[in-house]
Amino acid sequence: SSSGKNSACIGSIFEVTSAQKDAPTTKSTPQLRKGPLTAKFKGPGSWQQVDIVIDSGAVANVCPPELCKYLGTAPTRLSSSGAYYQAANGTKIFNQGERTINGQTQVGDNVDIMFQVCDVKRALGSTQEITKAGNTLVFGEQGSYILNDASGKRTPLEEKNGQSVLSIWMW
């Protein structure tokens, strides 16, 4: 069982009952809309800056329960069945439900991101989920970014503490 917050990547997902073996039904589907960022405040109904660490070992986008908790957490088949993720160190990290967070990138693109809520230290963006949503991730010395395959739009990633990070303002 999980004790304390985990910082390791979320490497596997495990279903508790054999009758529920199919993959999670939710996806991260960033949907770009146009509009400028107009305010930067903290709290419910306001703006909060969040860094999402891009993680190639994560099988799902995950966030800690405290992140935008005012939005609530919707129960899912996974959370109801006792499903858990397994960290690289073998720790079980139980799925507590899901939460869609709306936000805006540093360049003004609006996004809606579905996160699985669990006992982790920070928000992780799964490369699997990002690419399933119709994007290509590009990492390079001259800059890293998420390329939307349909529109060709580039969303820059920042490097922070040696990690690629998508910084967004959430509302």
Keywords:
globular, three-stranded antiparallel beta sheet, nine-stranded mixed beta sheet, 171 residues, mainly beta, single chain
Q: How would you sum up this structure, described in words?
A:
- It contains two helices and twelve strands.
- Helices cover 6% and strands 39% of the residues.
- Strand 10 (144-148) and strand 11 form a beta hairpin.
- Strands 2, 3, 6, 7, 8, 9, 10, 11 and 12 form a nine-stranded mixed β-sheet that branches.
- The chain is mainly β.
- The chain has helices spanning 77-81, 127-132, and strands at residues 10-14, 48-55, 62-63, 84-87, 92-94, 97-105, 110-117, 124-126, 135-138, 144-148, 154-160, 163-170.
- Mean pLDDT is 79; it is low at 1-9 and 14-43.
- The chain is globular, with a radius of gyration of 16 Å.
